[in-house]
Amino acid sequence: MAKIPPPLWLLAEVTHSCPLQCPYCSNPLELVPKKDELDTETWLKVLHQARKLGAAQLGFSGGEPLVRKDLEVLVGEARKLGYYSNLITSGVGMDAARVEKFRELGLDHIQISFQADDASLNDYLAGTKAFQHKLDMARAVKASGYPMVLCFVIHRQNMHRVAQMLDLAVELQADYVELATTQFEGWALANRDHLLPSLEQVRAAERVAKSYQEKLKGQMRIYYVVPDYYEQRPKACVAGWGRVFLAVAPDGLALPCHSARSLPGLELHNVREHDLDWIWYESSAFNYFRGEAWMKEPCRSCDEREKDFGGCHCQAFKLTGDPKNADPTCAKSPHHHLIGQAIDTSQLNLISSKPLLFRKR
Amino acid sequence: MSELNLTSVPKLAAGYRFQWEEVQQTHVLLYPEGMVQLNDTAAAVLALCDGQRNVQTLIADLERDYEIEGLQEDVLQFLVQAQAEGWIRYG
Ligand code: SF4
Ligand code: SF4
After folding, report:
1. For chain B: N or C, fewer Cβ within 10 A?
2. Average per-residue pLDDT in chain B?
3. Mutating which of A4, A52, A84, A177 best tests the B interface, going by the most B Cβ atoms within 10 A?
4. ipTM rounded to 2 decimals
């Protein structure tokens, strides 16, 4: 096999705790309890080892990373090591002083996520009153000189309001806006019948996003990615298994993708016992879907396999039972009809017996 | 945002970081959600986009450091591109 490239992107999932309860959360249904979280020393070790391996982008995520009292320590160390670091947050747990502190410590940017553009829908989806505070924090982030990066997680229940979301982003003077369609993993998969948008919604949102992209060129960058359920090809999972991306879960498991925990037959290793160099280059988990030897038909002989590497293995597993199958969002997959069925079921609203499941705190 | 001319002073846009990456053996530009690897020319120019010197000085400094003449056109072309990408601002 070709030489293994170094990891460039480290995602530090410092905790699964979160004061919000978003039903689209991609954390696993089995959340890592607080007592099993890595301590500060071990996180510092992870930062050192990953940087040495080549990671340059660093995301602090969760759960809500602000819940960790030692986040400032990690942020300061990240800057010293030369990471370009990003805090991915709901804004809850932040105040203007903490933003200032992060700025001093050298955090590069802060991404605040919104559930919606208005208070009632936002707070309904978040399971708690948070909207006004998010607005205040977004303004504080901007005021302290950071580029403003906003993220709206979109799905059936809020997708009709993409224009209003972008208007809010303009009002807040955002520099980057991500309209992130829910990926159906973890809690989001459990809630799929409530969250999967219709084709009309997806196309309408796309039109709105395009027109704002043109209107705001040079002022605000808007990213909108069509959900894979409505494309004929899958997404390249984390830009290819073991090629770019390395996540470390709250309990120290090193993950080739942040949902890899759910895959059967994958022996994951913990940063408490192994160093990241070995985990990245040698461990079976990171080599499991590297290259093409693992592929089955139709991927094995597909001329697009260099583009998407067979798609998402977690999705293949959850929907077809075998992670080595082609991702069923691919129209060439013999299981592609499952996607059509999921769309039909969710559109028929056959769900009254199953309420929207809010994430545990 | 002012336009490019010989007296304008380029600097990296807010949130961008320019640095050498040892493992990749290349200069990179880092920004929210992204990283670009830079070729030697791009790196040499961006290293001087420090918000201090104007374009004319930048070109003169480059020509001196690399002992080449006639870089003006290439540099201007790159700066136009860099601004279009959102990497640099004038201020
Ligand atoms: S068949 Fe496999 S490799 Fe080909 S496009 Fe579909 S998922 Fe990708
Ligand atoms: S394997 Fe699937 S769930 Fe995991 S990151 Fe890749 S795309 Fe996502």
Report:
1. N
2. 90
3. A84
4. 0.87
